[in-house]
Automatic annotation (TrEMBL), chain A:
Biased composition (Low complexity): 153-168
GO annotation, cellular component aspect: ESCRT II complex; late endosome membrane
Name used for this protein in its record: Vacuolar protein-sorting-associated protein 36
Keyword hit for Transport: yes
UniProtKB/TrEMBL annotation, chain B:
Name of this chain's protein: ESCRT-II complex vps25 subunit
Keywords: Protein transport, Transport
GO biological process, one term: protein transport to vacuole involved in ubiquitin-dependent protein catabolic process via the multivesicular body sorting pathway
GO cellular component terms given for this protein: ESCRT II complex
Amino acid sequence: MTLQRYTRSVDGTIPISALLYGDEDSYASQDGVGIYDGVQKSINHQNGTVYVTTHRLFYIDTTKPHSRSFALDLSSIVRTQYYAGLFTSSPKVTIYLTQETSEIMDSDETSESWLCEVCDFRNPPGSSPSGAKCALCGVPRSKAHSAAPIPPRAVSAPPSSAHLLSSSPPAPSAGRLKEVACPACTFLNHPALTECEICGTALTHAALPMKSAPSSRPGTPIPEGAGDENSMLRLSFRRGGDKALYAVLKRSLLGKAWQVRAKTIGQRTTSTNVERFGIDGLVRGVETSAQSAQLDMNDALKDLDALMVKAREMVRLAGELNERLTVVAGLNASSGGTEPDTATFIRSSLVQLGLQMTDVPVTLDMAHDEKRWYEQLARELAGVLQGTGGKNGIGMMRNRGIIPLDEVWGGWNRARGVALLTPSQFLQVLPHLPAYTHPAIAERTFHSSNLRVLHTPTYTPAAFAARLHGMLLISGSRTTLDIAQEENVPVGLVAEMVDEAEAQGVVCRDEAEHGEVSWWVNDFQGYVWDGQDT
Amino acid sequence: MSFSTYKTPSGFLLPSIHSAPPFFTQQPNAATQVVFTEQWTRLILAYARYRRLFTVRVEDAEVSGGEWDEVLRNPRINRRLMPGQLAHILSVMVSENLAMYEPAKQTRATLLYWRLPEEWAEVLYEWQVVNTGQLNTILTFYEISEPPVPSELSGIPQSLLRSAIAVLVKGGRAQLISISDGDGVRFFPRNAK
């Protein structure tokens, strides 16, 4: 009986190391051990190997390891007794087991996967019951394994639990002694309850046992025989090794690794180096990274602040240096000093760094430097526009005579890739452009829309007007679309150019009713009346 | 690209510009528009003189089937003068004293001065002296605008006739007389004074 109540069947064909919990260590083993269930020999457990671990005591049967092996939780042992043996009697270790607090699970759940109560995640086996946590949500494993999917094994379950009709989950059988019977309906309530779970009647914990109640009423059964003999096991060491194993067993019991384990788990929940899984782990991971990002950011901003302070010092220093140089230059002016070059260099560097000295105007020297810079930029832009291939590919205006400014700006910056130019810098480069391009590329602004374009000489207002005039003379009339196709220029640009030609009086429009505008040569300026004589 | 003149069924020779499509479109370019307005003014006056039309209305451009269709429309190029543009042309003509709004205080109908009131006065006087020799006799307005023998003055609107007579009165060659059945006029010899 004791065997059935306190032990759990294990599959002895599995190597012992695979049966251990993640936090369990095996200390010692001894073969040739027989088991006494109480004072009687247990017939089925007379030749096996006993293993002592930090948490459990294993008995692996030698003949039928699959069906006759079992494990016993050390936590259920209250004391042990050693008997050295006499004559034919083998040395024995008597183990007295607790009658009240033992927590024998219905099933062999530690070596099986289990379902989390909260998120229904099926957790892999491998951790002792006290320390197990759901790998997905981090909720500790419930003591009452209502959601445990594995049906109770007949071997380890008390016989009477098979016909339970209780609405409460199968409770640990050994906890029955403290259950409180309801004075009204006799239901055996959990000791924590103050009211009957069924009828709501107030419970008195000193209630007398209900003599009239049937013994098989709802609830887990009262263990048969609570006597000392029934809560005792004996290990008979038929091949010796008893002393060594007993010593290890004592040490394991003193170590109370199962309690330590539970405690450390409780402490470790706040520490960050615990390996975590699932949502819990993800949330924790995000928190951690956010925290570290915040720290990094603070550090970085501190650096930036420091840099700003340094920069301000630099500017002041440069300003002082500049003043001194100017004074020296003033002194040397008569003698033709060469100092201004240095001053110019400092000033222009500051300007290019964007560090403007408030009290120093932009001088001609600086302007001179900038001019050179813009000229170089213009040369680069010319390459982008008229290049013949190579690094930047074919120039943007190689096959096009007219191109909007925004497109040029975008294309140029794309070609540069780094150190992009602002639109204002771009506009300052444009006046230098015709000098570096052949044919000269000039800028042009359409009056009606203020659209700005770059164009080759072919698209100056005069050249385009002349071409348009010739085209219309030959063909009579043309729509904007026709002209755009003929010129191979976007319609929008052609419309702008034709509008300008119209403003110059080169062409005139013809708006048919509900029709498109077509353009005619404006030859009516010097028209001579050729109609009816008056 | 050249445009040709066209003789209408009524025998009027339309100028070549009338067959140019842009001629029928309001031009944003002011200089071009001035040229076109000028040519339209000339065309309208020439046609009015040819057909002896004294008035033109903006409606003539809106509704087809009127006396002005031959000028305001060109079915050969599928163009017509837009009412708005005609109104613009008329306003220019009024400002140049080539027409006047009739009746006054509106801008949709004009009396055309293909002859100025001064010219009409001369025509009236010549007709009076040469064709009828009825000096010193009194003529009613009706007798002048609807003479038994068709004259250049046939169908002349009363307002135009009145301003022509006013020119003669100013020159002392006629006198406006009120008689029972409307106004009458008496002409004096040129050298009467």
